[in-house]
Amino acid sequence: MERDSLSSANPNTRVNPAALTLRNSPAATDQSDVATILSATEMFTAAEIDIAVSLLAEPIDVGYQFLFADHSEGLAGFACYGHIPGTDRSYDLYWIAVQPACQGAGLGRRLLSAVERAVTQKGGERLYVDTSGRQQYAATRKFYLAAGYAVAAELPDFYRPGDGKIIFCKLLGAALDMSV
Prior knowledge:
Largest sheet: 8 strands, mixed
Order of helices and strands: EEHHEEEHEHEEH
Mean pLDDT: 85
Distance between the termini: 34 Å
Radius of gyration: 16 Å
Structural class: alpha+beta
Number of helices: 5
């Protein structure tokens, strides 16, 4: 199990960030904790939350990899990623979410960086992220742009009328070296 110590420079965080750790093995309470985090963000539909929780029930060899960020009070955030079937070196970040009480402290960026490191270690060269084009997701899109992602495609009305899909991509590892 991978563990990295995390800390936060945000003194207004309502949880103690000094005790945050990353792990990649699911715990018994992760399904309910993931549902709680996704619901608390008020960004996801009930169907989307059900999908995220169902991925935790899948065997690891199906291709879904997780990172969980824990603090003394429980799960603070998580990310789910995996190799895109049929590709040589492309990965998808399926989910990333941080408990609202922990947002703004850099935990989302730390989770994203840890996913990027893991993908690079597995030989991945591109990490794709899909998100909504709705105004509610403006901060999410800004987060990915600030992390070095570029918009690769926009699909109008993908999720439903008025809710397009924005696909971001970041070059990693050898692909990044070749682009300079």
